[in-house]
Specification:
alpha/beta, TIM Barrel, eight-stranded parallel β-sheet, binds 1,3-dihydroxyacetonephosphate, EC 5.3.1.1, gluconeogenesis, glycolysis, isomerase, TIM_sf
């Protein structure tokens, strides 16, 4: 059985004080969980967040990292820096990184390799845009995103990969993929991995859904057989909402 994961991607929200406040609210609101719970605050608040959550079952992840080990990359953060503050999970390939910061599949493949080399776990995001779904290309797009960034990996690396299917048209729009649409794509992703690797790997990989998950729709989405939890944006910024979504992941 795959254990569910609920991860909050805080994006560029919450200053230092607000971060401390939300973490304290989350600790009160989430006393126990069947699912693994992760939050991803901004870089500047990561170390302090990790410190505040020491001993708690809520874990901390980074929203991004650079592929190089160190060097002249002004403004960037390495895997080693993250590990040195106790952060060993990183979100890569988010659609906002792809859209606004020009991250493409080949760059992401390098980031994936760097994170794995550093012994990190990756939450790898991908998903089609609205036009691609409208024209029926969504399966092809998702397959090529996976192939280009991940299918060079050795089978053994897959235990460090969590997938997050986030259809771009459902992110921050209030429009959620229906539970059936999510299930259909998640099953397709598993089938694609089974074809490329093995049934074991396909069945073992955790696949999260992301895009306008809220307390009101989380339970139904998470009840689908191939949906193993969620990557939550807006609703992860409100402790009561995030707690309700965590409670829906059983
Ligand atoms: O991008 C997301 C999580 O990474 C989803 O964002 P929303 O939950 O705000 O739609």
């Amino acid at each position: 059985m795959r254990r569910k994961i609920v991860a909050g991607n805080w994006k560029m929200n919450k200053n230092r004080e607000e971060t401390a406040q939300l973490i304290s609210e989350l600790k009160t609101a989430i006393k126990k969980s069947d699912a693994e719970v992760i939050i991803a605050p901004t870089f500047v608040n990561l170390a302090e967040s990790a410190g505040k959550l020491k001993g708690s079952f809520i874990q901390v992840a980074a929203q991004n990292m650079h592929f190089a080990e160190s060097g002249a990359y002004t403004g960037e953060i390495s895997a080693d820096m993250l590990k040195s503050i106790g952060v060993s999970t990183v979100i890569l390939g988010h659609s906002e990184r792809r859209a606004y910061f020009g991250e493409d599949d080949s760059l992401l493949a390098k980031k994936v390799d760097a994170a794995l080399k550093a012994g990190m776990r990756i939450i790898f995001c991908f998903g089609e845009e609205l036009e691609q779904r409208k024209s029926g290309e969504h399966f092809k797009v998702v397959e090529s995103q996976l192939k280009n960034a991940l299918f060079h990996l050795k089978a053994a690396s897959w235990k460090h990969i969590v997938l997050a299917y986030e259809p771009v048209w459902a992110i921050g729009t209030g429009e959620t993929a229906s539970p059936e649409q999510a299930q259909e794509m998640h099953a397709f992703i598993r089938k694609t991995i089974a074809r490329t690797y093995s049934d074991d790997i396909a069945q073992g990989v955790t696949i999260l859904y992301g895009g306008s998950v809220k307390p009101g729709n989380a339970e139904e989405i998470f009840s689908k057989v191939d949906v193993d939890g969620g990557l939550i944006g807006g609703a992860s910024l409100v402790a009561a909402d995030f707690a309700a979504i965590v409670a829906a992941a059983r």
